[in-house]
Amino acid sequence: MIDLTQDENASPNCISSVESKPTASVDVVEEIDIKVWTLGLPNCGNTCFVNSILQVLRYTPDFLNSLHSLLLVHHQLSKLAKEDETKELVFFRHLHLLYSAMKRKEALMRINADKDYSAFLLKPVKLVISSLREVSLLFEEGEQHDAHELLITTINAFHTACHNLKKRFKNDENDNDNKEFSSSIDPETGPSTICDALTNQDVKKQIFTIRRRKTKSILLDSSVIENLNLGFEGKILNVIQCLECEKRLSREEVFTNLELNIPETVSCEDSVDLRECLSQTTILSGENKYFCEECQHHNEARMSSEVVKLPPILLLHFNWSRNSQEANNAEKSKIKLIIPRSFGTSENSEVFCCSSDENYKLFAIVLHIGRSTEGGHYVSFIKDASQHIVEPDNEQKFMRPKLKPGSQFSAEPVNCCTTEEISNFKTIDAATRWLLFDDNVVSPVCIDEDSETFPYFNYLSITASPCMIFYHKT
Q1: Under 8 Å CB-to-CB from 216, ≥6 apart: which residues?
Q2: Which of 37, 67, 110, 266 is deepest in the core (most CB within 10 A)?
Q3: What is each CA distance from 315 to 5, 318, 453, in whole angstroms?
Q4: How far apart are CA 320 and CA 242, in angstroms?
Q5: Could you confirm whether the keyword Protease appears in this record (predicted)?
Q6: Would you call 448 helix, strand, or coil by DSSP?
Q7: What is the CB neighbour count within 10 angstroms for residue 299?
Q8: Which phi-psi region, left, alpha or beta, contains residue 196 (left: φ > 0; alpha: ψ -120 to 50)?
Q9: Which of 77-86, 215-224, 317-326, 424-433 has the lowest mean pLDDT?
């Protein structure tokens, strides 16, 4: 049984619940039998919510490639025109430094397996947390925070960084064109005829072509930046239907995660399949009645959501809190969630209204341990990729993931922030070994290869609740 104990650097609010653990399971791998070549992250004081998200992002398909590409685009734009880093870019630069440090220390672990290298990550982790607080004032030092808020903040910060780089690219492009074009015209006479003007236009095109040739090996065009994304975005159609006149109003929106709630019909001690939570509708009644413009008065209405464009990474967020009668206390539900290791969108066609059936595979879970949402501890399960990789020798070079044609830029493979395991992470089928990340402790967990679900409740306290579940499209 994996023992979750309190980290010496954590405050009393960030504790692991060890009460009422289930009996030992045959699926738990004895740690002495399998060596884990993956580093955990030190707790800097109530930072378990940060550690759990950073570990999941590291193994999210294409995340490291997008992170590396973002910083490389910024580096190349800085060569054309110097500009101060935004707070978002500082955050991602520190995050990249952390992942690079983890990669280097994990390589050393294979040489000196008895040494604990996680302590060497304390400084880069603190840099990430410090720059995170510059991005958002929500994350006050020493306080426990919601891991979901951190993930959404990171995704939004990436969008902001890409948007700012896109503006810089266009501004630099226009400024350089104007300077080079104006330098080819006599400042006193200017273009004297239409023919001269046409000639100057040709000159402008030639200058633009020459300048593009100088940088095309790295920056193809603005689509390089536009296509940088983390893969969480999909499109959803929100529908409200009046139950009297049956008129439907719909609005399409971009989403980064699906917010799910346990159905009210499920009692506190029951279990519920995740797929049952996907297909939910809400009836607006009582004080929440919907004002129908067709009927010109408030009516009961049915509110539902339909996914019309699927994201490469499907993030499901669960809200486990229930309002307790006690003031300032948010008691969690004790319902056991059944998590399928894979599912097809055709199984929930009323929610996933896409034309084709898509399959998703589970690769990570972030869990909150504790009876109340106002305290507790965060851990994460992540699919272990190392079991499918040949043991590397000390001379092996780690490569970046292959770049998608037309969406990123050409660059030589680098021995930087990723590993072979992470590069091949998405292609692994039916992995039976997982890793449990609990701050600086990383423990192997093995599940039955015939199991169709992930039994997190066999390894953690009964107060452990999945709050974020990550699937990738196959």
Answers
A1: none
A2: 67
A3: 28, 10, 17
A4: 29
A5: yes
A6: coil
A7: 18
A8: alpha
A9: 215-224
| Distance separating alpha carbons of residues 230 and 65, to the nearest angstrom | 9
- Tell me the backbone φ, ψ of residue 446, rounded to 5 degrees: -115, 135
Q: Which residues contact 276 (CB under 8 A, 6 or more apart)?
A: 263
Which two tokens mark 456? Answer: 């997190």
**What CA–CA distance (Å, rounded) separates 423 from 401?**
5
Q: What is the mean pLDDT of residues 230-257?
A: 93
Alpha helix locations (H) across 273-339?
A: 274-278
For 461, which DSSP code? Answer: -
- Residue 136 in 3-state DSSP? coil
List pLDDT tens digits, range 424-465.
Answer: 555 555 457 899 999 999 999 988 878 899 999 888 988 899
- Name the token pair of 90: 């500082």
Q: How far is CA 439 from the centre of its chain?
A: 18
pLDDT in tens, 5-24: 333 333 344 554 334 344 33
For 443, counting Cβ atoms within 10 Å of its Cβ (0-12 exposed, 13-18 middle, 19+ buried), the class is buried
At 328 the three-state DSSP class reads: coil
CA distance linking residue 150 with residue 317, whole number of Å: 13
What is the spatial distance between Cα 64 and Cα 422, in angstroms, rounded to a whole number? 9
Q: In this structure, what token pair is assigned to residue 269?
A: 């001690």
